[in-house]
Give the backbone structure.
Amino acid sequence: MKLAIALCLSSAAAFQAPAAAPASTALRAVDESTLGVQAPAGFLDPLGFVAKDGPEAFVRRRAVERKHGRIAMVAITGVLVHNAQIEFPGYLSKSADLKFSDVPDGLGGFFSIPAAGIAQILAFCALVELAWWPANNYSGDYGCGFFGTSYNDDPETKATKLNAELANGRLAMLGIAGAMFAEGQTGETLAQQFENLSFSIV
């Protein structure tokens, strides 16, 4: 649990911040090379990837970071919601007589899903990756905005929102990784770990 707390509270700036690179056309007047450079780490590239691999590689890495951050925000939200016992009503699988409320919290929940359900999840992920959020689209604009950023915002406001998205995504990646590692180490779900510390998310 200490690992989970440490990761959740770690500075989002611990992830690699960008160096000079061409601004994405989708960001319009916002210079993406300045996004993600946040205190206290500022520009952080200890292994010299940006200088070694050039701006093209940076653009791809930024797109991957943005996408993974968005997925991690959804994932950590799902973990918190499910550990708070907030679940869909009804059946996950009528044929297997499995209700949503029967699915255990934590990593064990995945293994309680019928094979057909897992296949549907993987098929949906493939659809998102190939059609909705295609991997070859590095702009971050998948037709649904930058998680609340209006294209009519002035450059300063837009940069603030995009910086917030990157920071929250980085923190979410730390959070979901910490929750998974801590559960794998202790065998306790996130809610159980908080209860052992006299906290409660329910």
Observations:
- Strands lie at 91-93, 98-99.
- The chain has six helices and two strands.
